[in-house]
Amino acid sequence: MALVVPDYDLAIAFFVDVLGFELAEDSPSLTNDGRPKRWVVVRPPGAETGILLAQADGERQTAAVGNQVAGRVGFFLRVDDFDAAYERMTAAGVEFVTVPRTEPYGRVAVFLDLAGNRWDLLGPAGVA
User: Which stretches make up the VOC domain (predicted)?
Assistant: First the structure.
């Protein structure tokens, strides 16, 4: 999956330093028309699948930054310890747009990434 971001380094800092993802790859690359870009992939620790961070290139892509799924939650971060992740992310300045709640599938709270995309932080059901 590709996530259009405003800036490679800001996105790496958010995903690695704030969310705790691993930087799986950061390699020089070229656009289809030969301009320099980077191939940047982040992933949750131990995960095999990652997210390609694609810096916006041009007006159309810049317009999609933060609105890739039309304002809906489109991304999901599942954690083993919901409360610890929520506290760590809040302390790091992550903006949560809902308070944590318990649903039949577990604990959940919606947060915004650095560009404004909505994510669910998901954890196992526990004491609310």
Answer: 1-124
Which of 25, 69, 66, 68 lies closest to 43, judged by CA?
A: 25
Query: Tokens representing 79?
Result: 């954690």
Are the C-beta atoms of 112 and 118 separated by less than 8 Å?
yes
User: Rounded CA gap, 33 and 97, in Å?
Assistant: 39
Per-residue tokens: 102 = 């318990």
d(CA 84, CA 20): 12
**DSSP helix/strand/coil, 18:** helix
The DSSP output letter for 14 is I
pLDDT higher than 70, residue 127 = no
Q: What angle do CA 74, 76, 80 make, to 5 degrees?
A: 170
Residue type, 103: E
Over residues 21-34, the pLDDT tens digits come to: 999 999 999 988 99
DSSP letter at 39? E
pTM: 0.89
